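The material for today's practical consists of a large collection of protein records. An example says more than a description, so a record of this kind follows:
***
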Amino acid sequence: EADISGTGSASDSEIASSPAADAGSEAEPDTGADSDTITSPALAWPISARSEAALRDQAARLADYASAHPHADAASIGRILATARTHFSRRAVVLGRTRAELEAGLEAVRTDRAAANVVSGRAVEGMAGCVFVFPGQGSQWAGMGVRLFADSEVFRERMTACAEALAPHVDWSLLDVLHGVPGAPGLDRDDVVQPVLFAMMVSLAGLWESAGVRPSAVVGHSQGEIAAACVSGALSLKQAARLVAVRSKAVASLAGTGAMASAPASAEQVRAWLEPWAGRIGVAAVNGPASTVVSGDADAVREFVEACRERDVRARQIPVAYASHSPHVDRIGDQVAEAAAGIEPHAGQVPFFSTVTGGELGGEALDGGYWFANLREPVLFDDAVRALIGAGHRVFLEVSAHPVLTMSVQERLDADDADAVALGTLRRDEDEQVQFLTAASRLHVRGLPVRWSSLTDPAATADEAERLGLPTYPFERQRYWPQDSGGGAAGRVGAPALGVTAARHALLGAMVPVAEGDTLLFTGRIGARTQPWLADHAVRGTVVLPGTAYLDLALHVGRHAGYGHVEELVVQAPLVLPERGAVQLQAAVTAPDADGRRTFTVHARPDTEAPDQPWTRHAEGRLTADPAPGNPADAWDAQEWPPRDAQPLDVSDLYSTLADHGYDYGPCFQGVRAAWTRGGDVFAEIRLPEGTATGGFGIHPALLDASLHALVLAQDPTAGDGADPGAERLPRLPFCWNEVDLHATDATVLRVAITGATADTCTLTATDPAGAPVVTMEELRLRPMAAGALAAASARDDVFTVGWPRITAPLAAAPVSFALLEAETETE
């Protein structure tokens, strides 16, 4: 039947897609003599360490070795790294077909930058297996499997066995269809594409098992259940091949009898919408928390789609002319019974989770009656995934030619807040060998056992390792002196003893409700000494509290008051932090006004013993209880990273460029790791340095501030300041935020989209590596800092003190002239 599984692509924290490669190259293996020589097959250089710093050091040492030994065989290096080295928890795998790609990947790991041919992550203990997920229709593409058939003996043998099992039941050759032989039928025929996809999935499963990745459970969507049953051992290959071949012919005979459509809504909501067409349309598949498919009479399905669009629901009709998983299937009951005739299922060796029942099912139950229900009843894929999560499964691997179900699985994982991940195997029209190696690397960096020897030719020998002399594990130095976390005094002394409540924010120490009115007052003490990371944010050599710190304060204070949406926040004056000492901070939120808004303010003054120091208002804003309508993330597909058609930007000189314009960012604020542009929009990957504590922040100001740095790559950071070309350029700083919501806390990595940018404004959306929103802001305004603003902010009364200077210059013994007012003569 049609693709009713939904669409999407694999996403994963800390990883990127595979390197670009010439899929048709068949050049000789690389000997190392020329860095541009194509290697065949693609190679993987896995490295690991006990810490992120040691991983970067390991990459640097290996890069230096590769540079100093240009004739060392790249394949031998990969074998030693993969099979003769201990794999520690912090892992990275560099992939490539050329020596230059491999060395460039090492440089990216060394500098902690994202790269297209680097997969990195942290291994989790106890990762013994993963769920094999088999989709229905929709993953097919012309040319799929051809490269693997040529390069992999295991895949070739399994595909050939599938061809032999299908041959008695079809009038075409599987291998001819796969290779696009003239005269062979195309994948546009349902009775062809379904058996071909079955063979593709079963062959890929065999390839995974040869690489040491065995399923801990299997689940299939509609016809994908046949492949799942075969891989689990419940059905033999011959039984499964006959079932999929005859079943596909039966489905094809339904053409012209119905229609199907998908809607991005929950099954409960869709069922309510279907009431006007009761008995004519029903739910065909529940793929995720907000992904439902319906099927039924063609005219009713068209009316349903139009009604959804009137509700601003982006429903779409699936391009098929029949209605599987509906009463329409009753017409082909006899044909389905014929397809299932003679099936004798077994218990199976791998747990089988049914999308007919929504839970685990013994393989012996997969008889003829089950396979009719598989085509007739709704696909309860989301229920099956929830059951798998409940059973403790944490890694879901879609075994297909292109991700179809990965996004739906990830949506369920996110909705259940499950510490799990969904990954794909191959991608449409991309180098299959590199893609499979990339997928294996994704599993490896998460801690799943991968048999590298099957992917890198024979395992490395001791003689080979000794002969090459690759660098060993780096020595790690660790500092044990305690550092001030920057928490407030109230938290250290004991807030209840002071009559206040701990503020639970890194820049605030205490919170107290004001006795009269519904006002909350937060206090703190900050300085570059107690919060060392603040010293990394300087403008023209002066340490200034970043504007993003005010925003995080507003979000934190607002959540305390039940008003977590920042409608507007304006920075009114820069807060300069002294080289020595600190400043006292007050953040307050007033009672709601007549419109239901609360006013938020931030004041500060020097932290001195003088009680009469004046307070300066540095920021003011409005908070509301309701989030912003709509979602700026709708403007781009957060699941696809980097975005399709986006062009990479060079970030290597970003911070030196910023320094030339007066932005003195230290390591904590140098978070841009990679960036891309598309049609004037900028996309960037932002990462906090390892060891930077995020506790006490909703979103760390350094992480959010770095999200704005990529804007410099697309425009002049001082453009629009009105200065003459030869005049001194003024740094542009964020000063006004509108419609800001924080969706998740404790982020250390962001994927940022800056859209609609002008010289003065932009819209910013930030997600985590899985595509889930972290922070959204409808509008951010920037303006040049006025000349002399920092000097004015620094000229405080606390720099003036009473003192008695000591004069060290000797008194000169010289003649002195004086006059007597009463005298008429001058005396000398």
Observations:
- The longest strand covers residues 38-49.
